[in-house]
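user: Please supply your own:

assistant:
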Amino acid sequence: MADPRKNLIARPLYLEVIKAYIDVPVVKILAGIRRCGKSSILQMLKQELIAKGIMSEAIITRRYTSLDIPENFSARDMYDDLKKGMRAGEKCYLLLDELQEIEGWEKVVDSLLEDDGADIYVTGSNSKLMSSEISTYLSGRYVLIPVYTLSFAEFIEFRKGRKGGELDERELLADYLRFGGFPIIAAGDFDERTAYQIVEGIYTSVITNDIARRHTIPSQELFDRTVRFIVQNVGKTFSTNTIVNFLKNERRALSVETIYNYLIWLEKAFVIYRCQRYDLQGKSILKTQEKFYLADPSLKYCMFGFNPVGLAAMLENLVYFELRRRGYDVYIGKLGTREIDFVAMKRGERIYVQVCRNLPEDSDREVVNLLAINDHYPKYVVTLDDLASGNIEGVQIVHLRDFLLGRV
């Protein structure tokens, strides 16, 4: 049988981060939504370790999904299994996939890190990985590496791997906007209906495995209605009270506390990401008027279908995650009564970004908020308008394609 690892398409963004931590005595935690490519990254890491001269016998890989482990598999079983595979007195590399399924795994990892000096890499699809237990057992000895669905640059490489040769970037961007960035979709040859059915299966798996099994949901129907409201309003400002009122209009009722819990659970399963508001005048993070963005646009399309009319909000979604991939902390900017789509900050570096589908004839209207910011950090308007380019009083007008590919 052919080795499936030979067909892996590299994701250097993550490999470069991980390589910096090889043999560093901290647990490397790769966390992100199911099927975003974490398992493949572990396989690529194994290839990297072997290329560095590490014997394959020193690399132990395990997958801990419910289909891969026996029923009632415990942390003790996990510890005994791993110890059995480790060679006494030799450096060992542990690549442990979907570890959150094992209750008490953090104690096992702590022991193997502390007592055996193992170099440990783990993945998970639920931020239970970052729970208080980890803070207790691994305080200061772990690093979180967020994993997202494919960037546009990665999407292009996946399509090249599928079709070969040079591809048209405009067509690829159209596909990326329509199909999203789940690796299984990018690497396959699916029509729209089939692609969204696959994504719907991923979403259902997340809801079943990472939310329903962990929490008591009083009404699955009300939970589903709440999720649909959140997904439909990606990139818009809303509060828990907004959802309460929406459900009241549908003659349904949920408490603010319940809806707040639903939002937290969706965040912990990496379905949605919270974007807080930053006051540029007061230089402080605000606790109100937050927005949420989806782990992948296809999660919306599998529920509601692809609609070009509603594309503007999903353009924001793409830009938000591109900034996150580049290591920025991302906020919505507040400047008096003005709003900046994104303020992205990283170790003293800062950029401002406005996102729009098309620039109006008077493009000043799209840059006026940016021009109101009185500093010299880079400012961009990102658009799908093919005719838009140039510079307006220091504000750069760039096409979405060029922004996502890092050409600015």
